[in-house]
Amino acid sequence: MVVHIVMIKFKEDTTKEQILDIKKRLEELVDKIEPLKTMEVGLNFKPSDRAMDLVLTAIFDTKEGLEIYSPHPAHQEVVKDIKALGEYTKVVDYEK
């Protein structure tokens, strides 16, 4: 099993509605990308200098599944908007 975690810090002028839209679109990827088994998306509620705004945890059966997911057009549509709204991201991929 492969776990893919992404944390996003949005730009200061990003609205709550824009963040909620990104969250919804990320969650919908499970129905659009076959190797993606689960997608959990959480929004931070505790402000701090170290805090990120959104975290996603995606599960795949194999590394190959992650490799299919990354360039998939449905994923890339969301990535485009995350890049436009995001200040920076952090990523961790590991096998479980």
Q: Tell me what portion of residues adopts beta-strand conformation.
A: 35-45%
Counting DSSP H or I runs of 4 or more residues, the number of helices is: 3
CATH class: Alpha Beta
Number of strands: 4
CATH topology: Alpha-Beta Plaits
What about the largest sheet? 4 strands, antiparallel
State the helical fraction: 25-40%
Shape: globular
What structural class should be given to the helix and strand makeup?
alpha+beta
Question: Looking across the biggest beta sheet, what order are the strands in?
Answer: 2-3-1-4
The string of secondary-structure elements, in order, is EHEEHHE
Note down, in words, how this protein is organized:
The mean pLDDT is 97. Helix 1 runs antiparallel to helix 3. The chain has 96 residues and is of the alpha+beta class. The chain has a single domain, classed as Alpha-Beta Plaits (2-Layer Sandwich). The protein is globular.
